[in-house]
Amino acid sequence: MAPAGLLVLRVTVALLLTLHALHWLVGAFAGAALGPGGLTATTTYFSGAGVPAAFMFVLIAASLQLAGSVLLVAGWFTRIASITLIAVEIVRIWFDSARWGFFLNWALDPTRGHGMEHAVLLVAALACLALAGAGDWSVDGIRLRTDASRAAGLARIRDHA
User: Fold this and answer.
1) Distance (Å, rounded) from C-alpha 28 to C-alpha 111?
2) Could you identify which of 86, 97, 135, 147 might form a hypothetical disulfide with 6, taking C-beta atoms 3.0 to 4.6 angstroms apart as the criterion?
3) pTM, whole model, 2 decimals?
């Protein structure tokens, strides 16, 4: 059942990151809880939080989240994608979430942002993928089986020669 569990984890994390990136880039799912979203509003928010080169940060972070999501769903370069996405989340925690404490803003108080609860869960899930890999039901799993088969075949040829 491990391949199924890793598949569920990969797809769920990818979905969350995709929705988050779309909110930052185009304002998808804008509302009272998330704010207006979009590149301009998100850049303004991070600029106010003291992020240097906020526009570049938002553009790069959201692009990495989208690209990483595609790689996670396919299970392709999963460890590299997971480590990269962990770095994005840590930077986001550092510049934004940590100043609001641990918990999300459940009261939807407009004077404060969300804590790092969501980001910590994402980091933990991404760390699981970085450590365990994508599993058998992935491009990485197929590549691993192919490489192992190729190596075993070459070993048999050497043994018989």
Assistant:
1) 22
2) 135
3) 0.86
| pLDDT tens string 58-84 | 999 999 999 999 999 999 999 999 999
| Tokens matching residue 91 | 């930077």
The count of other CB atoms within 10 Å of the CB of residue 132 is 15
Q: Give the whole-angstrom CA distance, residue 102 versus residue 117.
A: 5
Hey, where are the domains in the chain? 2-160
Q: Using CA atoms, how far apart are residues 34 and 61, in angstroms rounded to an integer? A: 17
Q: Please say whether the beta carbons of 68 and 85 come within 8 A.
A: yes
Give long-range contacts, CB 8 A cutoff, 24+ apart: 63-68: 63/21, 64/88, 65/17, 65/18, 65/20, 65/21, 65/24, 66/17, 66/18, 66/21, 66/22, 66/25, 68/14, 68/17
C-alpha torsion sign, points 153, 154, 160, 161: positive
Q: In degrees, to the nearest 5, what angle opens at C-alpha 133 toward C-alphas 131 and 138? A: 170
> Degrees (nearest 5) of the Cα angle 43, 45, 51?
70
Higher pLDDT, 108 or 48: 48
Helix (H) or strand (E) holding 127, with range, is helix 117-132
